[in-house]
Amino acid sequence: MFKKLFRKAFLVDLDDALTYPTSKTICQAIQEQENDVVFLSEEKPIVFQLQETVYAVSIKSANGGYIIHCKEK
């Protein structure tokens, strides 16, 4: 139970945060922020590997717009 609470996570801002992002937009935003990204799945659910850690992507509402939430899988 506690293992899920202490997973690594980070947020990625979108250029156009007011419209719901497509899979292509999400992948581009992650690649702009992180350099060593390997996408395992580019369709929803988007999964990628960063420095030997696998992350899953979810979209969250924040401040009247959307933000990308990447959480360790």
SSE pattern = HEHEEEE
Major sheet: 5 strands, antiparallel
Assembly status: single chain
State the low-pLDDT regions, or none.
none
> What portion of residues belong to β-strands?
35-45%
The total beta strand count reads 5
Strand order of the largest sheet: 1-5-4-3-2
What does it look like?
- With 73 residues, the chain is of the alpha+beta class.
- The protein has one domain.
- Helices cover 21% and strands 42% of the residues.
- A hairpin with a 2-residue loop joins strand 4 and strand 5.
- The protein is globular, with a radius of gyration of 12 Å.
Summarize the structure.
The chain has a five-stranded antiparallel β-sheet, with helices on one face. The protein is 21% helix and 42% strand. The protein has helices spanning 2-5, 23-33; strands spanning 9-12, 37-41, 47-50, 53-62, 65-72.
Please specify the SSE layout and strand pairing.
Layout lengths: L1 H4 L3 E4 L10 H11 L3 E5 L5 E4 L2 E10 L2 E8 L1
Which tags fit this structure?
alpha+beta
